Amino acid sequence: xxxxxxxxxxxxxxxxxxxxxxxxxxxxxxxxxxxxxxxxxxxxxxxxxxxxxxxxxxxxxxxxxxxxxxxxxxxxxxxxxxxxxxxxxxxxxxxxxxxxxxxxxxxxxxxxxxxxxxxxxxxxxxxxxxxxxxxxxxxxxxxxxxxxxxxxxxxxxxxxxxxxxxxxxxxxxxxxxxxxxxxxxxxxxxxxxxxxxxxxxxxxxxxxxxxxxxxxxxxxxxxxxxxxxxxxxxxxxxxxxxxxxxxxxxxxxxxxxxxxxxxxxxxxxxxxxxxxxxxxxxxxxxxxxxxxxxxxxxxxxxxxxxxxxxxxxxxxxxxxxxxxxxxxxxxxxxxxxxxxxxxxxxxxxxxxxxxxxxxxxxxxxxxxxxxxxxxxxxxxxxxxxxxxxxxxxxxxxxxxxxxxxxxxxxxxxxxxxxxxxxxxxxxxxxxxxxxxxxxxxxxxxxxxxxxxxxxxxxxxxxxxxxxxxxxxxxxxxxxxxxxxxxxxxxxxxxxxxxxxxxxxxxxxxxxxxxxxxxxxxxxxxxxxxxxxxxxxxxxxxxxxxxxxxxxxxxxxxxxxxxxxxxxxxxxxxxxxxxxxxxxxxxxxxxxxxxxxxxxxxxxxxxxxxxxxxxxxxxxxxxxxxxxxxxxxxxxxxxxxxxxxxxxxxxxxxxxxxxxxxxxxxxxxxxxxxxxxxxxxxxxxxxxxxxxxxxxxx
Length: 697
Prior knowledge:
Blueprint: H1 2-11, E1 16-18, H2 19-25, H3 31-46, E2 50-53, E3 56-59, E4 66-72, E5 78-82, E6 88-91, E7 104-109, E8 121-128, E9 133-141, E10 144-149, E11 158-161, E12 172-177, E13 189-190, E14 192-198, H4 202-212, H5 221-229, H6 236-240, E15 243-244, E16 251-254, E17 263-269, E18 275-282, H7 284-287, H8 293-301, E19 305-306, E20 311-312, H9 317-323, E21 331-341, E22 347-358, E23 361-364, H10 365-372, H11 382-401, E24 411-416, E25 422-428, H12 432-453, E26 463-465, H13 471-482, H14 497-506, H15 513-523, E27 528-530, H16 554-567, H17 575-609, E28 615-624, E29 627-632, E30 638-642, E31 651-654, E32 659-662, E33 668-669, E34 674-683, E35 688-693
């Protein structure tokens, strides 16, 4: 009721109301609720949250409080992150008011109760309703229907009146608006905006999951019209003003199913014993201009999203897969970083140039790896690829010797049939051919950042920064690895990149490799975009940016524009404007990563559902007081064995050693242990797998 009163008065900031007028608007038609309403009004006046003039009440602009973003947890609590300081405050569900996950809120923050606990807060008002629509399952219930949100961080169902069904039927996945939400004890109200399809359709499941995480799947008509109108041929005048590299042996290396070719390479000897390496990047900024519908949509999306069964591109297909893509045997426009590298793998010189190229070969990673292995030596691409591998190996060695960290995690690929059902789960091996491309992209990105940051007059620019880990998290990691007999030395309360890298090298091929690597990744800060350069901790680079993927990342497009502007003698860009876009792109990147990760997990759980009752080997990936997490070796997915189901003994969790120990038999489970399990259930909606630990462990 408190939030309903505040919301009503805020919606009418220029008017004042008598108490019975407010009660009538809020449909408080019984005496008991009206008495509660009166008491609530008095408390709001006393708290100076509303104004009273005689017998009338009015909205009061709130100047106090803290502004933050609400992140709700499925279990009913949440956190509000202060937009100014990044401090996190704990919030209980009853104190969220009418805020929903993702909303910008103003909160009152309480005093610190304990040094090891976060301060608590309460929502005073919703500053910006960022969650205006929800994706979920449509369920009619007599005189109305509810939509059960797919995103379990949305803690309430949405009520839909019968005249707002828009053709939805029971069990459909739908998009529903959030039109009205005035009381935490009630449900939000909305209308069906779009019917996606049947909830059991595997393709609809992935689509609805992505949309529930704010992934934009369709391009508006004005964007498509603009893309269709772009001229496909390159004017001769454009070719003549660029560095013409069409005679160079330029090649691409990409996954088998790639369609958007962002980058290409050339390698050739110079006359003075060094190597010329060309990193050629699709010149998206030539086609995507400011103040256009394509530009606005690209900025809104900020990134392409690679779901388990499809790619949701940042740019319309005509640009991402055709005009901008560096396809073989076609003249294409590029923005190139041409570098001179000596025999020790050190950068001697470089230039950034607008070029026209003609890719001679489109190689897959497997084809490139075959050349590296010595296969097909007479192929015209064999020697350039082997040279590229040799140079990239020197770059890797120099980077690792300089204190870089190589987590070296493999990527999971779910193989789907024509209907979208999973038929296999495999690991995409990270081969030397993958590292070859990675190293040249790292070097080009580093060189682009250095060009601006290390100049005599550094102008505002976009950097990709990675802060040092949180001291508390890294201390916990240091304690954690001691349990396995490893050491992570701390200097001034934190770990250096070199020491963390040494730890990762030490656990290679050990049983605990997976669990320690994941723990280390969780201890890391999140890399973000910003105009404030602090270097990149994980790479141990003083300068770094993203230059090499403008087809799929909006920050790279901004970097291209800034480089061209500064190379031509342009004035400094507006730093505040750039910083705002950096913050937004960092946020959208996190959303995209979550959607990608959850879409893969969705299919992993569906695959596990087909194996209920089957037994598997796995590795204990985590232990908590409520159970043992196990990653299944063959399915490459994690499940939970609940302690309530471990009935062969009375188990006690030892927090200091991260061990679950049986009190009578002494059986223990700790991260890194190999175990045998049986799948007992798999919930696709929750993306959870329940396991049973077998007695032969």
